[in-house]
Amino acid sequence: MKTNLIRQAINYVLSFLLFSFSFQSLFAEEKVTLHLKWFHQFQFAGYYAAYEKGFYKDVGLDVEIIESTVGIKGIHEKVVKTTGQYGVGSNEILLHRHMGKPVVVLGVIFQHSPSVLFFKKSSNVQSIHDLVGKRVMLTPWMEEIVVYLKKEGINTSDLQILEHRFNPRDLIEGRVDAFSGYATTQAYDFKKAGFQFIAYSPRLAGIDFYGDNFFTSEDELKKHPNRVKVFREATLRGWQYAMSHQEEIADLIYNKYSKKNPKERLLFEAEQMTPLIQPVLVEMGYMNPGRWKHINDIYHELGMLPKNMNLKGFLYDPNPPTNYEWLYYSFFIILSAVGIIWLIQWKRLNKQYSENLKNQVKQRTEELRQSNESLQILNQSLVNTLKELTEAQDRLLASEKLAVLGQLAAGMAHELNTPLGAIVSSNLSLLDFLKNKLHSVISTIIHFNEEDSKRYHLVLAESLENQTYIEGKLERNLKKEIHLKFSHLEKMDLYGSHLQMVIETGLFRKPNQIEYILESERSLEILQVVSSINSAYRCNQIISVASEKATHVIRALKNYLVSEKETTSDESIIDLESEIETILSLYHYNLSKVTVVKNYGTDTKCIGNRDKLNQVWINLINNGLHAMSYTGTLEIKIQSIQKWIKVSVIDSGVGVPDGIKEKIFEPFFTTKPNGEGMGLGLDICRKMIIQMGGKIELEPVSQGACFSVWLPKAKF
């Protein structure tokens, strides 16, 4: 009795201590520090929102946000020095990782870097190649600008590099010819000052770096994995809130953190950040290992990093693969326990059968009922796991869509930038004609006499009917030929205005009318008026052609991204020709050196899933282009064979060696270097095709490789 009382007292004391410790841990806030890489501004809005809206507090964190007055210098050393430290960085974090600092990037905020190179619009620097020998201020650690210049054939040794003072007045007042900075901030200062500028982004040359990210140390992740996880989740929640409530957060920054920048500048910065962060299209914090490999390759070209740097441990994985070993062990233990119990009971039944038969039968029945319940629970768990795997496959398809856009972003940007540049240039010429020349043209035409009006209409009709632009050596030879033919006319001097206008208006194509036109005292005015109208007409044609080209690219991107409900099941009716044309439009930039042969032998539709089939076409086309090194012939053939629609993708590449033909459809088998490829794999393609009632196979060809997909025909 006394022993039992002592034992109960000890249990009460231990329970009280355990409850006290748990209560204190529940309400205690862990102190951590976040180091920004610059002054307080909207660039760090998500961190302020996470703090002020209590997102950090909700997960038990007391976060101290510290701004930097010297840029990113020294932040990495502070973060790795002690646990509880976090920082905001850029792509330079990869260099620090290589230098031995155990940093771990937790998430990317800017999907595209805001770094640009600013020029004065009216200066003698009108293109990137005019920079040679000029004065340039480059921001430290902004290596994508250096790579951009190098890709355009310009080394830093070709420039007069000046120390960056981060003062826009240096460019405005002409103390420097080019000035690197952020499109989200410095652009506001230039516009506010009424300064006309041009901004060149490295993305024009296909150099698409990430922008801001946030990171911590390996020590912090090892000792406090849950703290890292909740800090990341609260931070991304803060960024989502900040980008959805920009004006509110701008007021918060101005009133509480810093009045250095007016609210107008903060809102301008927020507006410019939206297309760089892409909060609607891309999941906040998402980062693609392939993009980091691209950054690694660029640094390698500069001699700053080794090729194919090992990124293991560098990129934080918020959702590591689930370990099901415990489930298998538990199941084995349960079965073993049931077996052992059954053996024990069996032996006891043999010994006491006559006495305990009724009790043993009852006991065994109860044990079987419990075992059945355990198996039902386990079966439900397996059903849930299968559901999760199905959902994971759908997320994988969505992720692959974004990965394709990430790989093709530079090409699509070029496809849009070229026609848009032509539209802007032609529009400026039209504006100049309407504002400065139209009144003069009308006034001149009105004062023509009847004979001059006939001459004017004759030249105008010829000029507009044959829009031929002649330049260079051909123009000089044509001038000499016309001058010799009409040397008896004083007005047809080789270097005179009349001869130039005869070429520009196309009048030279009617040599029998030249003397008639030049007989007029106002012949030069007639030719100049027609030349002005002809230039405006040519600009209109350029705008029309360029608009159609840009519309084609955007239409293809929309068709790829947006799926109708009736095309997302495995039993949807699919127009293969339309879908393949959409994929080829997305790859247009990558097909510049490839001859595409389209052999569409039927327009019959098939049965399948649009999104899954598009991923199959992308995988096969991408494999073919990679095998050809993006040079050669790519043939796409569609055939109707009995109850099947057969789609064949044939490339002129190196082909598939006999030794691996049996392995190409195995899971995770690839011949590409690490970090390349779509990530789906031919095995997953094969499984998706089988789910749709079809099949995929490698067919023998004389050169290259031929992958054929068989899909059931649609019934009408």
UniProtKB/TrEMBL annotation:
<dbReference type="InterPro" id="IPR004358">
    <property type="entry name" value="Sig_transdc_His_kin-like_C"/>
</dbReference>
<dbReference type="GO" id="GO:0009228">
    <property type="term" value="P:thiamine biosynthetic process"/>
</dbReference>
<dbReference type="Pfam" id="PF02518">
    <property type="entry name" value="HATPase_c"/>
</dbReference>
<keyword id="KW-0408">Iron</keyword>
<keyword id="KW-0808">Transferase</keyword>
<dbReference type="InterPro" id="IPR003661">
    <property type="entry name" value="HisK_dim/P_dom"/>
</dbReference>
<comment type="pathway">
    <text>Cofactor biosynthesis; thiamine diphosphate biosynthesis.</text>
</comment>
<dbReference type="InterPro" id="IPR027939">
    <property type="entry name" value="NMT1/THI5"/>
</dbReference>
<comment type="subunit">
    <text>Homodimer.</text>
</comment>
<protein>
    <recommendedName>
        <fullName>histidine kinase</fullName>
        <ecNumber>2.7.13.3</ecNumber>
    </recommendedName>
</protein>
<feature type="coiled-coil region">
    <location>
        <begin position="354"/>
        <end position="395"/>
    </location>
</feature>
<keyword id="KW-1133">Transmembrane helix</keyword>
<keyword id="KW-0663">Pyridoxal phosphate</keyword>
<comment type="similarity">
    <text>Belongs to the NMT1/THI5 family.</text>
</comment>
<dbReference type="InterPro" id="IPR036097">
    <property type="entry name" value="HisK_dim/P_sf"/>
</dbReference>
<keyword id="KW-0472">Membrane</keyword>
<comment type="function">
    <text>Responsible for the formation of the pyrimidine heterocycle in the thiamine biosynthesis pathway. Catalyzes the formation of hydroxymethylpyrimidine phosphate (HMP-P) from histidine and pyridoxal phosphate (PLP). The protein uses PLP and the active site histidine to form HMP-P, generating an inactive enzyme. The enzyme can only undergo a single turnover, which suggests it is a suicide enzyme.</text>
</comment>
<keyword id="KW-0175">Coiled coil</keyword>
<dbReference type="Pfam" id="PF09084">
    <property type="entry name" value="NMT1"/>
</dbReference>
<keyword id="KW-0479">Metal-binding</keyword>
<dbReference type="InterPro" id="IPR036890">
    <property type="entry name" value="HATPase_C_sf"/>
</dbReference>
<dbReference type="GO" id="GO:0000155">
    <property type="term" value="F:phosphorelay sensor kinase activity"/>
</dbReference>
<dbReference type="InterPro" id="IPR015168">
    <property type="entry name" value="SsuA/THI5"/>
</dbReference>
<dbReference type="InterPro" id="IPR005467">
    <property type="entry name" value="His_kinase_dom"/>
</dbReference>
<feature type="transmembrane region" description="Helical">
    <location>
        <begin position="326"/>
        <end position="344"/>
    </location>
</feature>
<keyword id="KW-0812">Transmembrane</keyword>
<feature type="domain" description="Histidine kinase">
    <location>
        <begin position="608"/>
        <end position="715"/>
    </location>
</feature>
<keyword id="KW-0784">Thiamine biosynthesis</keyword>
<dbReference type="GO" id="GO:0046872">
    <property type="term" value="F:metal ion binding"/>
</dbReference>
<dbReference type="InterPro" id="IPR003594">
    <property type="entry name" value="HATPase_dom"/>
</dbReference>
<keyword id="KW-0597">Phosphoprotein</keyword>
